[in-house]
Protein: Sugar ABC transporter substrate-binding protein
Organism: Cellulomonas chengniuliangii
Amino acid sequence: MKSLKIVALGAALALSLAACAGDGAGGGETDAAPAAGGDGAKTVGVAMPTQTSERWIADGKAVEDGLKAAGYEVNLQFGNDDIPTQQQQIDQMITKGVDLLIVASIDGTALANQLEAAAEKNIPVIAYDRLINGTENVDFYVTFDNYNVGVQQATSLLVGLGLLAEDGKAAGSATGPFNVELFAGSLDDNNAHFFWKGAIDTLKPYMDEGTIVVKSGQTDIEKAATLRWLQETAQKRMEDLLTSTYSDGSKVDGVLSPYDGISRGIITALQNAGYGPGQDAGLPIVTGQDAEIASIKLINDGVQFSTIFKDTRKLATQAVTAAESFLKGEEPEANDTETYDNKVKIVPSYLLESDIVYAGNIKSLLVDSGYWTDAQVASGQA
């Protein structure tokens, strides 16, 4: 949100996710997490961006539990979606003498000064799921194959529209044209650009042939972006699109959404405009990402169509594994040394794979794996 045996670490992280809860946003050090180990244990500073998303609460808890199980002290902080707050938190971690930093940045271009200070004290830095840009002082990156996440989001949209089957093959059951609107994440998050590129590369052939029509004409990431990934921002943009583009009686058939919170904002706007069961138009196909429990319930109920499951337990495990390597004076294992250019260097990375979640595979992907329970899926609450 140990011994070095992976079974023990996996168990610790699974338990941590089940307890997906957190203290007040932007609070101080977590309990039992001094900045430097009084008994000689090394300390890891963990900077997470926000507690407004259940995903980041779970990540912080999972990383913290994994590190503690491995025998390290942990200083876990949440930045409350405020750049100066996160900068100050990292400054304090460095001043108090952490031995390593794991950072999920709010703005991937805003931490150069902090990481320079870390480098001066020989503190390794692991970027967690969001690449830190514009600095040579980031040593490793753990994330998912973010381009492929975008491909999966677009693929699920095409499946929902009937253009593809779930196995990715042509379905032959629909021809279009379909009115689709495009949403992107926050431009200051490097991942948003990878998600967008993967999705647009996948949709472009259908757009070029006219099977998919972006009726608003807003096909640039700058116009589609959602600052800070905020649900209310996405809802307002969807409301504006409905007013400006669909007041002629035409209907939205699908919406590419890069994140579940954005998806819920989009869906709220659509429902308020008369889309849904018993209305003149059913809800469009809406995609998502992160398998947040509120959206999993919507998918189970036939409201949201899909999401992308990035098993953050695996991401936390990989972050802990990389941290252990650095703290032993070793280089962590990378499986990608070409893709992630932060404008100063290619950052060695470890990429994990993700899965598309539809209503039909919620049980096999999420429940059977222990990520969510049947009761949580039914209630929409963790």
User: Anything to note?
Assistant: The chain has a mean pLDDT of 90. The longest strand covers residues 43-48. The domain at 146-309 is CATH 3.40.50.2300 (Rossmann fold).
